[in-house]
């Protein structure tokens, strides 16, 4: 029979289990945590690692992109310009351009005064030519004393080799009695001779019926347009071209052939364009490398105010019977005529 508990005695406390490792003295055995807690910690740790990996990946992409942009706008871009021949594609500091414009404006009068007195000029343009450059050249021609008879644009159809036979047919039909057209030995020789008869003469004279007929036929055939119809036949032609662009080499060859054929009439032709026009594929380059390099004057700096003055000085030199190539370091005549 169980003994009754003594009155007033406190109940015995349950003894704690000894935490020491049963087989290793001095080691304390850690309590096991609930499995759920381990699972939550594992998930949290996995989430942190995934997020860090994501950040590193994004950072790597951004660094690679930044490096690509830096190279593209730096040495690789310069190399691309060299390969394309885009010598004139570099942006100019507006402050420098303003200075250059102002300086050219102050010095143009002394350089150009009466250099083309008594001469007349028809300005020819092609698709891609800068209207600002054309306007500057017209102003400088007038400052030199020349009469600008008008402005004529040669269309893409005129300059497309695929339309050569059509343009030749128009030239032969509208200028059949013109000696240069009948005696020319190639298509663009005949087309250029017809254009020369429509726009040029040895002396400044009113445009006659033959010239009007040829111009009308070429305009109806969409081979040229006349923003400012010439009232007179001019003694000189300045053909303003645009920058070199990919795929324009054939067009540049046509421009060179037309300029060479027209050069036989009046005082001749000057082909002028921006700096890239004298690189491979450009129209100025095509003239300088062609059969008319020593008879057709060229200028490759119309994208500067000073270069437009050089274009007028080249026209004066052409009138004096001293054609040449002037402008950039690619020009054998130097910066400007002597």
Give keywords:
extended; alpha/beta; 338 residues; 7-stranded mixed β-sheet; 2 domains; 12 helices; 9 strands; two-stranded antiparallel ribbon
What do these coordinates show?
One of its GO terms (cellular component) is membrane. Residues 9-31 have a biased composition (Basic residues). It is a single chain. This protein is an alpha/beta fold and 338 residues long. 48% of the residues lie in helices and 11% in strands. The protein is built from twelve helices and nine strands. The strands form two sheets. The chain has a seven-stranded mixed sheet, with helices on both faces. A two-stranded antiparallel sheet has the order 3-5. Helix 12 links the parallel strand 8 (297-299) and strand 9. The longest helix is centred in the first third of the chain and has 38 residues, at 35-72.
The radius of gyration computed from the alpha-carbon positions, rounded to a whole number of angstroms, is 40 Å
- Distance linking N and C termini: 142 Å
Oligomer: single chain
Low-confidence sequence ranges: 44-48, 58-89
Content of β-strand? 5-15%
The tally of strands reads 9
Mean pLDDT: 82
H and E string: HHHEHEHHHHEHEEEHEHEHE
**Helix/sheet category:** alpha/beta
Quick overview of this protein structure:
The chain has 338 residues and is an alpha/beta fold.
Element layout with pairings:
Elements: H1 35-72, H2 75-84, H3 94-112, E1 120-125, H4 131-143, E2 147-154, H5 156-159, H6 164-174, H7 179-183, H8 187-199, E3 205-206, H9 209-220, E4 224-228, E5 232-233, E6 236-240, H10 249-262, E7 269-272, H11 283-289, E8 297-299, H12 305-319, E9 325-326
Parallel strand pairs: 1-2, 1-6, 6-7, 7-8, 8-9
Antiparallel strand pairs: 2-4, 3-5
GO biological process, one term: copper ion homeostasis
InterPro entries: MctB
Pfam families: MctB
